[in-house]
Design brief:
alpha/beta; Spore Coat Polysaccharide Biosynthesis Protein SpsA, Chain A; 2 domains; 9-stranded mixed beta sheet; 12 helices; 9 strands
Length: 296
């Protein structure tokens, strides 16, 4: 059994996918298996199976989204630790070795940790703003506001993924944000301040470029978290979750009103009242979650 399963989800990225694969095959740590999950590509991606025969496991599925692809990879993997690599990103050669040394030297009871990353946008290196900088510890309150963990930088126990249900396959985007807030309210996030990932952005097929109004997916995630865990959370985390949810719901409501979406605006107002009343299972609450994930 390999120590780490590396999962690369991909769709229609044949050329840049090879860069990601090659960065895994160049790792100085060789105690891993590599799984590429092709989410219904229509380009030359299936050629990967023959070109890298014996070096990776190639899985092809009907197009179902990046969450389904990652979950599929988890199901067919065999290792106690899972690492993800987005097909447009690239690892430094020592990334897996650094993760292994961290686990051996520091704290194997820490079930998730991440390294730092270099950002390349439109071919040029950019520095993330201070609020986006990678960090570790009990980062749940900050994670409610923006995504502070990225899949390509992370390694975690497969048991932790299984306990939290993996990635939400209903989410077309922000699926990583959704998983991190479900995990980080009860898990400490480890952090290695070494640049081990090159993260590329600015291309048209990124999910963040494909979907408008991305914050609606974050509202879905926070409201779902409140529904499922309001009785379990520490008081301070519950309070912070409510504050962020209310702020985002007001913005969502105002945006719906500007677009004359009477149904969404009215539902958002009702949910604000339900949250104040501590009612996380109302009809309006469930209606909002459905509308956010699958707008009419």
């Amino acid at each position: 059994m390999p120590f780490i399963s590396v999962i690369i989800p991909t769709r229609n990225r044949y050329e840049i996918l090879k860069r990601a694969i090659d960065s895994v095959l160049a790792q100085t740590c060789t105690d891993y298996e590599l799984i590429v999950v092709d989410d219904g590509s229509a380009d030359d991606t299936p050629l990967i199976e023959e070109e890298y025969r014996g070096k990776l496991k190639y899985i092809r599925q009907t197009h179902a989204g990046v969450s389904a692809a990652r979950n599929h990879g988890i199901k067919v993997s065999s290792s106690p630790w899972i690492a993800f690599l987005d097909s447009d990103d690239q690892w430094m050669p020592d990334k897996l070795m650094v993760h292994g040394e961290y686990l051996d030297r520091l704290n194997r009871e820490e079930r998730i940790h991440q390294v730092d990353e270099i950002w390349i946008r439109n071919g040029r290196r950019v520095n993330p703003g201070q609020r986006h900088e990678k960090r570790g510890g009990w980062i749940f309150p900050e994670s409610l506001h923006l995504c502070l963990v990225s899949p390509s930088a992370t390694i975690m126990q497969r048991a932790l993924l299984e306990e939290n249900g993996g990635f939400d396959e209903r989410l077309p985007a922000c699926e990583d944000y959704d998983l991190w807030i479900r995990i980080s309210w009860k898990e400490r996030i480890g952090y290695i301040p070494q640049y081990m990932v090159t993260r590329y952005g600015g291309h048209a097929d990124q999910l963040s470029a494909r979907y408008k109004g991305m914050d609606r997916f974050r509202v879905y995630s926070i409201c779902g978290l409140l529904r499922d865990h309001h009785d379990d959370m520490p008081v301070e985390y519950l309070s912070e979750s409510i504050q962020v949810a209310m702020k985002k719901l007001v913005i969502l409501q105002q945006g719906a009103e500007r677009r004359n979406n009477v149904y969404l605006a009215g539902t958002a107002r009702k949910v604000q009242k339900d949250i104040i009343a501590g009612n996380y299972n109302s009809t309006a609450y469930q209606d909002l979650l459905e509308e956010l994930i699958d707008p009419a």
